[in-house]
Design a protein that fits this description.
Length: 431
């Protein structure tokens, strides 16, 4: 979501004549786009801002801005704490960012803007892709905010109520990206399964997928993130029915114990989660599943933790994102007693990661010797190999056939024979 926002900020500023530079000494504006989902987000912003203190000392006219979810959460407090910061604005104010920068520059006053736009009035920023900036794979937002209340999560507080982007706008943006050279689109939202089209209407997520899948020239379609409670049989069937929809599903489970899931406010049980996995694997046996896991949620017992381990064993995810629980300010769980000691959380996280490493190795080993279509995204750093992804979103590196320039494969689907598996990636050769 932040990557998508950063691109829109870049486009808005570009239209006002700004260019990007790798050298901060050349900059008129330094913009930090922040995320508050991980721990110590605020401290990271402070240290990033502090690293520009010298620049601001030498060139006080440089505008230092902080955008994103930490900006939304902290607002004017950031201006108080970080004297070198001139401008703070939250995600709902991205559309005004060029005006805000000019206001700061002209008035020489420091500004914090954290207004949240009403659901009825919210309009999505439109991407304005240029072929020189567009990669093979791009993100397209279909939603903002979230109406769920998962106890640990800061997103509803910083991104506001859920709003779905009109179907026609999404399709038009995909068309623009494809015309500019993109070949794979990932539709993004906090809970794509609850997509409802314009004004809470009747265009559900499967209808949107069908419409996007029809865009000529689009080779691959993905989406993230699905909520297990809202994942429907119709969506499972879409993996089977839409050839362009790739066999990869990120379905965050968070915990393997139904009691912990209830305490987290997730709205499904272990059994219901496993039933959805069975449903989608029944229709698409080769689908790659990935997930998120939080260990050490307040009150999680050793037995409940073992339920997470057994779920990982039972499902066999391709890969996982795993975290030790820590409280986010303003979330319901922050009021709970954080009673799992840090050492214990670390030990549980280690167990989860060690187990998943074995499972991932098993899953990748299954692919060795097989042939798989790889969408080439770019050349390797040394330029001799290219890298791309399988339908299951696994990175594959391979050397192009003799006489084929690596650059010529970008954006093309190449059949690859998988020859070896690394820790997280595969190696292969053209089939
Ligand atoms: S579904 Fe839950 S975890 Fe995901 S963004 Fe919404 S509140 Fe956060």
């Amino acid at each position: 979501m932040n990557d998508y926002d950063a691109e829109r900020i870049r486009e808005i500023l570009r239209r006002r004549g700004y260019q990007t530079t790798d050298d901060a000494e050349e900059a008129d504006l330094v913009l930090l786009n922040t995320c508050s989902i991980r721990e110590k987000a605020e401290a990271k912003v402070s240290s990033a801002a502090a690293s520009f203190r010298g620049l601001k000392g030498r060139r006080p006219d440089v505008v230092l801005a902080v955008a994103g979810c930490v900006a939304q959460q902290e607002g004017a407090r950031l201006l108080e704490r970080l004297p070198q910061v001139d401008l703070v604005f939250g995600p709902d104010n991205i559309g005004r960012c060029a005006d805000l920068v000019e206001r700061v520059r002209e008035s020489r006053r420091r500004v914090a803007v954290t207004d949240v736009i009403d659901v009825e009035d919210y309009t999505f920023l439109s991407a304005d892709p240029r072929p020189e900036d567009v990669g093979t794979t791009v993100l397209v937002t279909i939603q903002k905010g979230c109406d769920n209340h998962c106890a640990y999560c800061v997103v509803p507080a910083v991104r506001g109520r859920e709003v779905s982007r009109p179907l026609r706008e999404v399709v038009a943006e995909v068309e623009r990206f494809v015309a500019a050279g993109a070949r794979e689109v990932t539709l993004i939202g906090q809970n794509v399964d609850s997509y409802r089209g314009a004004g809470g209407g009747t265009d559900d997520f499967v209808t949107l997928l069908v419409a996007v899948a029809r865009v000529p020239g689009l080779l691959r379609l993905r989406f993230t993130t699905s909520h297990p409670r809202d994942f429907t049989p119709a969506l499972a069937r879409a993996f089977h029915d839409l050839p362009v929809l790739q066999g990869w599903l990120h379905l965050p489970v968070q915990a393997g114990s139904s009691r912990v899931l209830a305490a987290m406010g997730r709205g499904y049980t272990r059994e219901e989660y496993l039933a959805k996995v069975d449903l989608v694997r029944g229709l698409v046996p080769e689908i790659a599943l990935t997930t998120d896991v939080i260990v050490g949620f307040p009150g999680e017992t050793a037995d409940e933790h073992r339920e997470t381990l057994s779920l990982l064993e039972a499902v066999e995810f391709e890969s996982i994102y795993s975290f030790a629980y820590s409280a986010r300010p303003g979330t319901p769980a922050a009021a709970l007693r954080d009673d799992v000691p840090l050492e214990e959380k670390r030990a549980r996280l280690h167990q989860v990661q060690a187990l998943q490493q074995l499972v991932t190795a098993r899953r990748l080993a299954r692919l060795v010797g097989r042939r798989t279509p790889v969408l080439v995204e770019g050349e390797s750093r040394r330029g001799e190999q290219v890298c791309g992804r399988t339908p299951g979103n696994i990175v594959v590196n391979f050397a192009p056939a003799a006489g084929t320039a690596p650059g010529s494969l970008r954006g093309r689907i190449v059949p690859v024979h998988v020859t070896a598996a690394g820790t997280h990636t595969l190696r292969g050769e053209p089939a």
